[in-house]
TrEMBL record:
One Gene Ontology term of the molecular function aspect: diguanylate cyclase activity
Species assigned in the record: Methylomonas koyamae
Lineage: Bacteria, Pseudomonadati, Pseudomonadota, Gammaproteobacteria, Methylococcales
Every GGDEF domain range: 164-295
Catalytic activity reported: 2 GTP = 3',3'-c-di-GMP + 2 diphosphate
Gene3D superfamilies: 3.30.70.270
Protein name stated in the entry: diguanylate cyclase
């Protein structure tokens, strides 16, 4: 690899087989990397272990498959970047930066040590893929109820700890039973998948859509107060109403009722869900195809 900052190298299992042997026990890298399956922790451990041998000011790691971005330190002028792969499995890209050029011997050492990282990253990738499958609703491709329960607990704790707002939007497809009764469950499945896709397209990049159960979806809105959540919910309602669904020779116009609640000082996660759910049922009772805000 050249010393130019824009150079990009690939480290893979083939590199591992061809690498010059390194005293891995001295660096204690391999054993330290067996302690976690979290991408950011793996990168942090690796960089801490090599800091004395290959000093660097900043590190950046990206794994597009999981929308993973990790950065720490100061991103300086000179850099070396590596695409990591094992058995054709993409493991992300790692970049180290510092104010001085990386020497040839340093880069040679770094490339050998990176081979200690690729198999722990492979294990983390397989784990995250399995977790994603377990947390994904197969019909709608949204996150499922288990994923929502985990995310809700985590986001409530974060909001309380940092003094931030957290809002919840419940979405229920109107007259969904009639769709199943009149057109069959295949049409109902198409309606669910279509609404889920419309919701995913309409929410912000930082927001997640979950299938709560049946024809109900829920959206977590981090750092969003009741007014902001109401605006987002109204946009979601309008987007659903503006779409039409073609099924055979029939065209269906779908609508949804939405309830919005924001975390209050004495709320638990369960109470927040109940208040959003109650607001959604109020929208149903008041004519459907509308947004109701919880008190």
């Amino acid at each position: 690899m050249k010393e130019q900052s824009a150079e990009l190298a690939v480290v893979s299992n083939k590199t591992f087989e061809a690498s010059t042997a390194v005293n891995l026990h001295h660096y204690d890298i391999s054993s330290a990397l067996q302690t976690t399956l979290e991408f950011d922790e793996l990168i942090g451990i690796f960089c801490n272990k090599i800091q004395a041998t290959i000093p660097h000011n900043g590190v950046e790691y990206n794994h597009p498959l999981f929308n993973m971005h990790y950065q720490r330190g100061v991103m300086a002028r000179h850099s070396c970047s590596y695409v990591l792969k094992v058995e054709e499995q993409e493991l992300g890209e790692l970049k180290l930066t510092r104010t001085q050029r990386f020497g040839r011997e340093e880069l040679k050492m770094l490339e050998s040590l990176l081979c200690c990282l690729i198999y722990p990253l492979r294990n983390a990738t397989l784990f995250q893929q399995a977790l994603r499958m377990a947390y994904t609703d197969p019909l709608t491709k949204t996150n499922n109820r288990a994923a929502f329960n985990d995310s809700l607990q985590r986001e409530v704790k974060r909001a309380v700890r940092h003094g931030q707002h957290l809002s919840l939007v419940f979405v229920d497809i109107d007259h969904f039973k009639n769709i199943n009764d009149q057109y069959g469950h295949a049409c109902g499945d198409l309606a669910l998948a279509s609404v889920a896709a419309w919701l995913r397209d309409s929410v912000r990049g930082s927001d997640a859509v979950y299938r709560f159960g049946g024809e109900e979806f829920v959206i977590l809105l981090a750092d969003t107060d009741i007014d902001g959540a109401g605006i987002i919910a109204e946009r979601l309602r309008a987007d659903i109403e503006s779409h039409t669904l073609a099924y055979g020779m029939d065209v269906l116009n779908l609508t949804a009722s939405l309830g919005v609640a924001t975390l209050q000082g004495d709320d638990s996660a369960e109470l927040l869900v109940k208040r959003a759910d109650k607001a959604m049922y109020a929208a149903k009772q008041r004519g459907r195809n509308r947004v109701e805000l919880a008190a």
